[in-house]
Write a structure and sequence with these properties.
Elements lengths: L16 H12 L16 H6 L7 H12 L2 H6 L7 H11 L10 H17 L4 H10 L10 H14 L1 H20 L12 H8 L1 H11 L6 H31 L1
């Protein structure tokens, strides 16, 4: 297992170890909590020496994602190197029937993926649940909007970035991850996220989780790459939000 230089995963070098916990867990453990037979990360000397200080071996984490995204035999012929993240993301989007443009940035494609997940969930929400989700991310006059109009608002939230986009990402990602790997996100204490946490564990979270529990992921590789890509998307939103916040603070 060797890391390929990948501009779309470089941001992981700036993500703290605690925030990387869920991604590492997903790469190493199966849904029942046992260690994956095909994972290599936990067998490396660096991992054994520094766990749980994941930030010290972020390249190995990225390499594990790349290798799960590549065919095993093809990876052997590439000297133990997998495929670039954008290719993995596109494979996941194809699997999930997400509409995207090949030439778009990884961030944009990830947003399309999250919007597809959200759209599927909104279709199953009651008006009360939809209003609760809108209230959680600060959407005004939500009770006057149709579900189609709400999706347009959520799309605008993603495009605008910032804290609301990060909140919406967490709500979506937590529910999906809970369905796919058997546990939700282990977020660090953050007063600003208190309202979000209530939505994560309430009826809205159940709607999204329920929809994903029925998803059939036959391929062992997709059982890793789908939750991994969704978590990378969440980490990127967190990184971009914190970067934006620090720039405002010091401007």
């Amino acid at each position: 297992m060797a890391y390929r230089d990948d501009s779309d995963l470089e941001f992981l070098s700036k993500v703290d170890s605690e925030s990387l916990n869920d991604l590492v867990y997903c790469l190493v453990h199966d849904k029942d909590g046992t260690t994956r037979l095909t994972e290599e990360l936990s067998t490396t000397d660096v991992y054994k020496a520094w766990y749980p200080d994941h930030q010290r071996y972020w390249k190995l984490i990225a390499a594990e994602i790349q290798c799960f995204g590549g065919n095993t035999f093809a990876t052997m012929f590439r000297g133990g190197k997998g495929v670039l993240y954008k290719e993995i993301l596109q494979d996941v989007c194809d699997k999930l029937k997400v509409n995207y443009n090949d030439t778009s940035s990884v961030e944009k494609i990830e947003q399309n993926m999250l919007m597809k997940i959200l759209t599927d969930a909104v279709e199953k929400m009651t008006p009360a649940e939809l209003k609760e989700l809108a209230d959680a991310v600060g959407v005004k006059n939500a009770s006057l909007l149709t579900s189609e109009a709400m999706l347009g608002v959520f799309q605008a939230v993603f495009k605008a970035g910032g804290f609301k986009s990060y909140q919406l990402t967490l709500i979506i990602v937590n529910a999906v991850i809970k369905a796919l790997i058997g546990r939700g996100l282990s977020l660090a204490g953050n007063v600003a996220l208190t309202r979000t946490m209530a939505v994560l564990t309430g009826p809205i979270g159940w709607v999204i989780t329920g929809a994903w529990t029925a998803v059939d992921i036959a391929s062992p590789a997709f059982r890793v790459t789908i939750p991994a890509v969704i978590q990378v998307a969440a980490l990127r939103q967190k990184y971009l939000y914190e970067k934006q916040a620090s720039q405002v603070e010091f401007s």
